[in-house]
Amino acid sequence: MANLHISWLLLAQCLLLVTRITAKVPAVVVFGDSSVDAGNNNQIPTIARSNFQPYGRDFSGGKPTGRFSNGRVPTDFISQALGLRPFIPAYLDPSHSISDFAIGVTFASAGTGYDTATSDVLSVIPLWKQLEYYKEYQNKLRLYLGGNKANETINGALHIMSLGTNDFLENYYSYPGRSSQYSIQQYQYLLIGIAGNFIKQLYHLGARKISLGGLPPMGCLPLERTTNIMGGNDCIEDYNNVALEFNGKLNGLTTNLNKELPGLKLVFSNPYYIFLQMIRRPSLYGFEVTSVACCATGMFEMGYACNRNNMLTCTDASKYIFWDSFHPTEKANHIISDYVVKNVLAQFL
After folding, report:
1. Residue 301: CB atoms within 10 Å
2. Beta strands in the chain (DSSP E)
3. What does the DSSP 8-state code read for residue 158?
C-alpha cells in the first residue's frame, strides 16, 4: 500500500509539473512605441532612432540596439520573468529569424501611437502596420512550427501593448491638427476606440492573453519639466491628470472587453503609481536624480541629441530615473516591469 501511495504521489506531482509547463507563456508578442521598441526603427527612414552610443552602453556587450535606454526595456525583463529569453528581438532586425521570434518578438516603433496621425509626425510604423507585420509573423510561425503548434503558441502567448504617450505629447499638445478637431476628452475617446478595435483584431487572430499598458505620469518627464518654467520646473499636473483620466478609460475598456469576448484574459498594466512613487521618493529605490536625465544636460535631449561626446552625460545611470529626456534608465525599467509582473502578469505564470 505504501508503494501504491508513493506512485499516486509521484503521478500527482508529474501532473502538476505538466500543468505548470503547459500553462506557462510560450512567447511574448509586443506592440507599441519607444517604451518597447528593440530596434525596428533602425530599419526605416526616420530620425526617431537610438542605434548609436551612448544608448545601449549597459546592454549586453555594451552595444546600442535601437532601444531607447542605456540597457534593456520593460518587455525584456518581462520575457525573462516568464522564463523566456532576457531580451525580445525586433521583428525587422535582419540578424534574427522566425526561430528567434517564435518565443518573443516586438513590432513596436519609437514615436508611434494609437492615432495614425501620431506615427506620421516622425514617419514611423503605425499601429495598423504593426498588426500587418503580426499577421505575416503568424504565417511564418505556422510554416516553422506547423499549424497546431503555432496556434497553441499564439493562444498561449502574452501579447503586450505599450503606447499612448506620444499621442498626447508628440501629437495633440504639439500640433494644432487634433487639438483643433477634438477636445482633450474627445481625443481620449477616439484613442480608446482605436485601442478597443485593435484588441478585437488581436482576439480574432487567436490572441487570448493581452496586457494593455497604461500611461506613465507624463507631466514628470524631464522634457516637460524643462518647459515648465512658470511652475518651477516641477511636473506638469495637467498632463499627469490627463494620463490618469486616460488610464481610467483604459481600465474600463479592459472590463468591457473581458465581458464581451469569450475566453479573453485582458489585463490592465498600469505603471503610473509605481513610476510616480519613484519620482516622489527616489531614495526608496536607490535613485538620486529625478528631474533631469543622464544624457547630456538631461533636460531636452533624446535620439540624436543624446550623443556620447557630450561631456555632461552621467557616468552612473543607476542613480538616475531617466536616461534621456523622455525614457527611463534600465534600472527604472527593471523596477517598473518587476512591479507589473508581480501585481498584474503573475496570473499568467
Report:
1. 22
2. 28-32, 104-106, 158-162, 209-213, 265-269
3. E
pLDDT in tens, 136-172: 999 999 999 999 999 999 999 999 999 999 999 999 9
Dist CA 31 CA 49 (whole Å): 17
Q: How far is CA 259 from CA 208, 214, 249, 262, in A?
A: 13, 20, 16, 7
- The tens digit of pLDDT for each residue in 240-280 reads 999 999 999 999 999 999 999 999 999 999 999 999 999 99
**Domains, the chain, ranges and CATH?**
25-271 (3.40.50)
Q: What is the pTM of this model?
A: 0.92
Point out the residues that are catalytic.
Answer: 34, 324, 327
What gap in Å lies between CA 336 and CA 333, rounded to an integer?
5
Summarize pLDDT for 178-206 with one digit per residue, the tens: 999 999 999 999 999 999 999 999 999 99
Answer whether 76's CB lies under 8 Å from 86's CB. yes
CB 258 within 8 A of CB 200: no
* Helix, strand or coil, per DSSP, at residue 88: coil
In angstroms, rounded to a whole number, what is the distance separating the alpha carbons of residues 242 and 305? 28
The residue whose grid cell reads 511652475 is 231
CA distances from 105 to 36, 83, 84, 301 (A): 11, 15, 12, 28
Give the dihedral sign, CA 178/184/190/191.
Answer: positive
221 Cβ contact list (under 8 Å, min separation 6): 169, 322, 325, 326
State the Cα–Cα distance between residues 170 and 177, nearest whole angstrom: 12
* Residues 252 and 200 sit within 8 Å (Cβ to Cβ): no
User: Where would I find the beta strands (DSSP E) of 97-186?
Assistant: 104-106, 158-162
The answer to whether the beta carbons of residues 138 and 147 sit under 8 Å apart is no
Measure the CA–CA gap between 235 and 216, rounded to whole angstroms.
Answer: 12
Instruction: Tell me the pairing of strands 265-269 and 158-162.
Output: unpaired
Asked if the model's pLDDT at residue 19 lies above 60, the reply is no
Give all strands of the β-sheet with 209-213 in edge-to-edge order: 104-106, 28-32, 158-162, 209-213, 265-269
**Alpha-carbon gap, residue 269 to 262, rounded angstroms:** 21
